[in-house]
């Protein structure tokens, strides 16, 4: 697969081992244009970067070598991991994002993303469940790649998880415990920032992050029946597959 190289200076100078790479984190650029995005990712004053950027026409640009730590995830947690930059490859998709006119991702963009992810998955032995969005690992700060990102299509290529509600069994007899059970499910899946004393605003943001990925037609911040069912299936996926 052909890719262009435009190196960014924004990475940690110490190299990492091949086995340290355990995740791929997907972002959107959230800027007006590809040129503006590249300028920011290559500007030493911005202190942000990624390993790969994929344009609207599917062109892949590498900005940081895989064995270097790019600065893309920021403050982040997933499962037992903190500061995901150390353990991940960051991929930015050119998209104006929520602040500038959120667009559908193009077919070329997604097809080349899938090709790249398959290569990375094989090269670094990355588990399919470790293909994540920025909002998965930083749900209190970030919303990208957003509700238009086709996670279901990626999951069909063994990149990321999805659900099959026809296989699950769900108990709604105690509605008062649904919220408690929902957050337990999310913790089991890998989501963090779910401390016991977390306030309602943060809970709202975490629910929306989960819905953007798995229930994008209902990004309400409220735990409806389908949102809960999805969380239950994903938390118990080994029982149903």
Written account of the structure:
- The chain contains nine helices and ten strands.
- The chain is globular, with a radius of gyration of 18 Å.
- It has helices spanning 34-42, 97-100, 107-124, 134-137, 151-156, 178-189, 200-214, 225-235, 237-240; strands at 4-5, 11-12, 23-28, 52-54, 60-62, 69-70, 77-78, 81-82, 88-93, 131-133.
- The chain has two domains: 4-156, 3-Layer(aba) Sandwich (Lysozyme-like); 175-240.
- The model has no long low-confidence stretch (mean pLDDT 95).
- It is α/β, with parallel strands linked by helices and 241 residues long.
- The strands form three sheets. A six-stranded mixed sheet has the order 1-5-4-9-3-10.
Question: Which features does this protein show?
Answer:
Lysozyme-like, alpha/beta, 241 residues, six-stranded mixed β-sheet, 2 domains, globular, two-stranded antiparallel ribbon
Number of domains: 2
Distance between the termini: 33 Å
CATH-level-2 architecture of the largest domain? 3-Layer(aba) Sandwich
Strands, total number:
10
The structural class is alpha/beta
Helix content: 25-40%
**Fourth-level CATH superfamily of the largest domain:** Peptidoglycan recognition protein-like
Give average pLDDT, whole number. Answer: 95
């Amino acid at each position: 697969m052909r890719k262009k190289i435009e190196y960014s200076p924004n990475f940690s100078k110490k190299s990492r081992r091949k086995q340290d790479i355990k995740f791929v984190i997907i972002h959107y650029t959230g800027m007006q244009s590809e040129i503006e995005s590249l300028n920011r990712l290559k500007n030493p004053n911005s202190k942000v970067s990624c390993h790969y950027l994929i344009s609207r026409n599917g062109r892949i640009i590498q900005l940081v070598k895989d064995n270097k730590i790019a600065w893309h995830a920021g403050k982040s947690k997933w499962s037992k991991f903190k500061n995901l930059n150390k353990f991940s490859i960051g991929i930015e998709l050119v998209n104006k994002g929520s602040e500038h006119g959120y667009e559908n991702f193009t077919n070329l963009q997604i097809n080349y993303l899938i090709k790249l992810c398959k290569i990375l998955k094989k090269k670094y032995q990355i588990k399919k469940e470790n293909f994540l969005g920025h909002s998965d690992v930083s749900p209190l700060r970030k919303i990208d790649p957003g509700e238009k990102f086709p996670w279901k299509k990626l999951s069909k290529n063994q990149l990321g998880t999805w659900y099959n509600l026809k296989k699950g069994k769900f108990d709604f007899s105690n509605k008062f415990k649904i919220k408690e059970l929902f957050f337990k499910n999310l913790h089991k899946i890998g989501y963090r920032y779910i401390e016991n004393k977390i306030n309602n605003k943060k809970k709202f943001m975490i629910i929306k992050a989960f819905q953007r990925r798995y229930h994008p037609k209902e990004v309400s911040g409220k735990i409806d029946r389908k949102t809960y069912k999805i969380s239950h299936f994903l938390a118990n996926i080994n029982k149903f597959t």
